[in-house]
Design goal:
The chain is α/β, with parallel strands linked by helices. It is built from 13 helices and 19 strands. The protein has 2 domains: 285 residues, Zn peptidases (Aminopeptidase, 3-Layer(aba) Sandwich); 128 residues, Alpha-Beta Plaits.
């Protein structure tokens, strides 16, 4: 009966929910610089009209985190939904068919705008879920917390990590289950329930050579050539870091994925026909690196004394940034270059390499997910709402889940949300409106079933 009340409430108010989502998308929160407070104030206003309070924690220049909850009792079971308010900048807006802040609706089926998939749809859905449970006043014996965070797109230290260390832990709020509400679909596959993730680490490599006139190149030390040597040897890095077995073999990943297909024969045929899907699976079993940005040189007749590169590393669960950084130092030493811990203020005559962690997100894994009745309950709700059985998976990229898992605060953290991964950070980013409405149903039904007496 209560589930029927929830579904009727959602079906009768879809226009209101869509307009709230449009309002969030139209509210600029590009990171950098952030501006998440713009979104936090919209959420506060929406919850206030529903009779709910929330706390906003401002910081920096127009930035903020937000937390809201169903009641004031944190002594029983606590469920937390996490979603970030910041979105990546749109890039060249002239390339967008519909302006990134327009929240344009096409054929009453698709909603366009920056953050439509990543992840203002999920943000709106969990706020709405909180409102519905408050309005229906169902008999629950636990608490639902909604944490809307800043800074996810640039690492999460000022968002989820800050909230964990400055709100949840100091107030002795123990969460029993957490859902990171990032997009968890890779079309045409069904929804995934994600229980682990690869790590993400970007290292800035700076080579410092010696400047000279190009008519006498031997008098200088070409920093670009130094960088070239490092690049040529980058594939040897695996020899310099501890060997870590992937959490799943390729065959085990195929078994997980097979739930999304009628039978294994069809899966094998699809994998043969779809190199993209095959590459995704292989990447989940490997430590990878990719040099994506390089800058060097000041003039066509000057030997460059400075070159910078950004290398993107994707870590397996069990690997950490210290392993990679130490391995890279050893590799560069063996090439023949000195690695300094700090760049010199005036290093004109010094030949060295400097390494800096530019950005990082740790890998993490909930190993016991398949023994959890809570996860099985979520699986059933997702199947009933979406009409397709979800499958279990690990993510290629880092999310804020690692802050909860790796700190031992709440290992029972999963990742599930509306939107397709192919739309994240894309030009003309969009979401299917029905996917958004379905997510509201899943979050509300799951919270009700998890917290009911």
């Amino acid at each position: 009966m209560s589930e029927e009340l929830i579904l009727n409430e959602i079906n009768n108010n879809t226009e209101e929910y869509i307009e709230f989502l449009r309002e969030l998308i139209q509210t600029e929160s590009y990171n950098p610089p952030g501006n998440e407070k713009n979104v936090a104030l919209k959420i506060q206003e929406y919850l206030k009209r529903a009779g709910l309070n929330c706390e906003i924690f401002p910081f920096g220049n127009n930035r903020a985190n937000l937390i809201a909850h169903l009641n004031e009792d944190f002594e029983k079971k606590n469920l937390l939904y996490n979603a970030h308010m910041d979105v990546v900048p749109p890039g060249n807006e002239e390339e967008w068919k519909y302006p990134p802040l327009s929240a344009f609706i096409k054929r009453k089926k698709l909603l366009y705008g920056r953050g439509a998939a990543d992840m203002k749809s999920a943000l709106a859905a969990i706020i709405i879920s909180l409102k519905i449970l408050h309005k229906l006043d169902l008999k629950l014996e636990g608490n639902l917390l909604v944490n809307a965070v800043a800074d996810e797109e640039t690492g999460g230290n000022l968002g989820t990590k800050w909230c964990l260390e400055n709100i949840l832990k100091p107030r002795s709020i123990k969460c029993d289950f957490i859902v990171i509400c990032e997009p968890s679909m890779l079309k045409p596959l069904p929804k995934a329930i994600i229980f682990g993730e690869k790590g993400h680490m970007i290292i800035k490599v700076i080579t410092n050579g010696k400047s000279a006139h190009s008519m006498t190149p031997s008098m200088g030390k070409n920093a670009i050539y130094m960088m070239s040597k490092i690049i040529e040897n980058l594939d040897k890095l695996k020899k310099y870091i501890p060997k870590i077995e992937p959490p799943f073999t390729l065959e085990e990943l195929k078994i997980l994925l097979s739930k999304a297909f009628p039978n294994r024969e069809i899966l094998d045929r699809i994998l043969n026909e779809q190199p993209l899907l095959r590459d995704v699976m292989v990447s989940l079993t490997e430590f990878t690196n990719s040099l994506n940005v390089i800058k060097g040189g000041i003039k066509e007749n000057v030997i460059p004394d400075h070159c910078e590169a950004l290398i993107d590393f994707r870590l397996l669960p069990g690997q950490n940034s210290e392993m990679i950084l130490n391995g890279l130092k050893k590799l560069i030493n063996d090439i023949g270059f000195e690695v300094k811990d700090k760049p010199l203020e005036k290093p004109a005559e010094e030949i060295f390499v400097y390494l800096e962690i530019y950005n990082e997100g740790a890998s993490s894994l909930w190993k016991e997910y398949n023994k959890s009745q809570t996860v099985k309950n979520l699986e059933k709700i997702v199947e009933n709402v979406y009409g397709r059985e979800p499958f279990y998976w690990i993510s290629m990229g880092a999310t804020d889940a690692h802050f909860y898992r790796n700190s031992k605060y709440c290992e029972t953290t999963i990742h599930f949300g509306p939107g397709s991964a192919t739309q994240m950070h894309a030009i003309d980013e969009h979401i299917e409106i029905q996917d958004f409405i379905n997510a509201i149903k899943v979050y509300t039904l799951f919270a009700y079933n998890y917290l009911k007496k």
